[in-house]
Amino acid sequence: MASLSVIVIFASLMGMCCGEQSLFLRNAEHSATASPKFSVLHAPAYVNFLETSRSLPAREVGSVSAFALGLAPSKGVSWDGLSPGSLFHRPKAAVLFLVDGVKAGDTLDVAAQQSSKMTVESDTVTSQAVHAVAGGKSLAAHVSDLFHGSSLALSMSSDELAAKAAGASGKESVTMFYNHEKRRVQTEPAQSPFTMDLEQMKDSLATIRLPAGFNFDASSGAIVSNGAPVLSMGQKESASFLAELASLQNVVRTLSAERQLVNDNIPDVLTFTISSLKALHVQFGSQSAQVKAAMAVLSAVIPQVASSLSDLYKGDAIIELVEAAFDGEQFLTRAGDISALYDALKPHLHAQTLSSFRASLPAIHISTQASYDAACQDAREAVSMMKAMEVGCKLPEETMKHSGRRLLSVLEVTNITYSGNASTFNLAFERSADWTAAFTMFLIVFLIIALSTLAIAYVLWTMDPGSDSIIYRMTNQRIKTE
């Protein structure tokens, strides 16, 4: 899921004052930004990560994992920190922990075999960028498609959209997310051993080995430090964090009980997106006991889960950690806000022409303090995740000011979905991203066979049986004379 802005829908208010439907984005408090970091927690001996001074682009994390699995995407990577490795041994799983919301001053102390800085093209590391491989699909979807849905593709986050951004749609794919209203961890598909209700979450949390000074009180459903609860299931932001912890433990427990899910020859992709830290930062503050407790707990739990998963795959798993920086801006404080954005966009995505789309949703309003580039990126990702159209936007030369806000026009809308009969447009059929490589391989093999056949035919046609064939020489015996 993309790290989106705080979205507040004021459609009715703007309908009265401006006569148009609009979306407003506001900022949270600003603070120092931590540097995003990529770490390898575990890799088999036959997968070699090299020491390099070059930063890893955020958009290449998924592609690096694909290369490590031996399932190279159609486009290469610029990062030089991964060597080719063994041709005969490949990892059985790729596991990625994405901790989204690390600020400068936060301490996530997780031992790693190797760490590398990450370069970012926008203000934040988005989940879509981290999980995507060439072609825009997530790593899980890429692997699942290659093995016709038989790969275990597990994606977990307290945020439904973050979980879906890293997921797949194969028959062995599971997406886990926390439902605040029902207070349960839901899955898609619904019938899955990874679902948990409130009591099951408490049972799962009770089995986690917390760091010194922390313990879980099952009766109150809270993590307690120095006799006082710091993270409680009764508080919304804390409940999201605890649901993610419970889900991590439940994944390990379920996979340990159902070994058939991991004991096969098909690589698996497990993605755990910790998306609740941002809400803790905004709700309680960066120096709060809640944020410090969350970082301490994550520093203890992530290595435990990584070690358990490594043991499940008998060491044949590559386990990575991405720390996504958070600067306090362009942040979604409530899961309902992003749902409101999607609900607001949905009615307009059926537009069949650019003019009709502009007429129904002409603009997005943001505050003057916000980052225009980040807001544009957020809007583009929100629309593209619905697979309806791609949008670009820019700030007009003549900005319209109203109540301290500026107008961002939505421009360059392309690839609008048409719900009618597509055959009337004489569209080309969809090709695989690897069709050029497949065509080249078939062409070369065909030419080799054709030329070999031609050469053999020529040799046989011009052969002199008496002098060129050893058969005739061996059978040509002299007539005995007396």
Written overview of the protein:
It is a single chain. Helix content is 34%, strand content 20%. It has helices at 11-17, 61-68, 127-131, 139-146, 160-165, 198-206, 236-257, 277-284, 289-312, 335-345, 354-360, 372-384, 435-461, 465-468, 470-475, and strands spanning 6-8, 24-26, 37-42, 56-57, 93-102, 114-119, 153-157, 173-179, 184-188, 214-217, 222-225, 228-232, 268-274, 317-325, 363-367, 390-394, 405-414. α6 (198-206) packs across α7, α7 (236-257) runs parallel beside α9 (289-312) and α8 runs antiparallel to α9 (289-312). The chain is elongated, with a radius of gyration of 28 Å. The N and C termini lie far apart (100 Å). Mean pLDDT is 74; it is low at 1-32, 329-337, 364-372, 385-390 and 393-424.
Assign an overall shape: elongated
- N- and C-termini, Cα separation: 100 Å
Q: What is the percent of helical residues? A: 25-40%
**Arrangement of strands in the largest sheet:** 4-6-3-14-5-13-7-8-9
Question: What characterizes the major β-sheet?
Answer: 9 strands, mixed
Question: Which residue ranges are poorly predicted, with pLDDT under 50 across at least 5 consecutive positions?
Answer: 1-32, 329-337, 364-372, 385-390, 393-424
Structural class comes to alpha/beta
The Rg value, from CA coordinates, equals 28 Å
Q: How much of the sequence is in beta strands?
A: 15-25%
Mean pLDDT: 74
Count of individual helical segments: 15
What is the strand tally? Answer: 17
